[in-house]
Amino acid sequence: MPREAIKKLYYSIGEVSEATDLKQYVLRYWESEFPQLSPAKNRAGNRTYREKDIELVNFIKTLLYEKKYTIEGARQKLKELQDHGLALNILSLEDQAPPSRPAVKVEPAQAPEEVTTTPPKDSPALNPERYRQFLTNLRTDLKQLLELIDS
Question: Which of 9, 15, 94, 117 has its CA 20 to 30 A from that of 57?
């Protein structure tokens, strides 16, 4: 099932597994290795992933599978990004209405602490189409940020 087809507030571990092409045991293991990945649990004890959790899973997957980081290296990279004030939107989306697109200034000569994200003042109520566009743009920005960090 393509990830764009999912249009819910909460997702089961099975749905996240299918959407990210990862096994469920891998997702559970990553929860133990990455403190930032901590999906809520319902009364029955089942994990309930939100969109921000899925974005984080995809970011970790990129670090591990595409960038070839070790688990320790990926954990350190996430911590460094948070320590530099780059608590990536994927780590802080929480329950706020999605902005149309944050203004992200990334230039090759900039130090990481100079990168800024500013959500627009006219953030709309939840709009699925704008939110999908926001997530697409966020992925692009994250790829640029990774390239900057790795250079």
Answer: 117
